[in-house]
Amino acid sequence: MKAEPEAQRRLLDLQALDTALAQLAHRRKNLPELAELAALAREISALSDERVRAQVDVDDLDRDITRIERDVDTVRMRLAKDQQRIDAGTGPARELTALQHEVVSLKRRQSDLEDSELELMEKREAAQATFEEITARRDATLAKREATELKRDQTLAEIAKEEEFKAAGRGPLAADLPADLVALYTRIRDSSGGIGAALLQGGRCGGCRLDVSGSEKARLRAAAPDEIVRCEECSRIMIRTSESGL
Ligand SMILES: [Zn+2]
């Protein structure tokens, strides 16, 4: 294939734009914010589960406290009733003695229930503190996620802007070059890690970074300037300039 030396040199400009575009695409896919957001999502999910469990603990204790309070009320009412009957002093002495025994036992029961209630209320306070601590951690993580999303979106917008700029330069440049040259370049670029054309500089291929052999140099020197030459090692298009060391 043949192409004007100027067209060949401009292939390097096209390559530079394609390399920049590839780097932008790579940057977009590997934004540190993406890994950070995945980690934050896992953290938020774990904290939400933990928060539900903490809420259940508080609710369970609330239910236990309500039940015990009802029991205390029942005992208090019974005590008041017994006391009334004792105070009235009616009925047989045997019955009065039985009532007095019951009052003693009811008071013990009331005291036991109140001790249990106190214990439960302390537990509830601790459970509530745990719930609030988890909620605060979750809220902080949610805020962190929001900030990270904002940062990600800003970076994506920057990348999109740069891509637009590079693409705007690439279009006319590619259109201006011989179609068969661009097609060859594109084919090599796509099969060779994104580099289709490289400068031959100081006797070294800019694509594979290998020095060309002596016999290869002779072949390159003999090739006409408009001849498309390719690296023996990596098959990429080698662009010859005064820096090529031939
Ligand atoms: Zn090479």
TrEMBL record:
Keyword Coiled coil in record: yes
Hydrolase listed as a keyword: no
Keywords: Coiled coil
Residue stretches making up the C4-type zinc ribbon domain: 204-238
InterPro entries the record matches: CT398_CC_hairpin, Oxidative_Scav/Glycosyltrans, Zf-RING_7
Ranges of residues in domain CT398-like coiled coil hairpin: 14-193
Coiled coil regions in record: 37-126
Protein name: Putative nucleic acid-binding Zn-ribbon protein
Species, as recorded: Allocatelliglobosispora scoriae
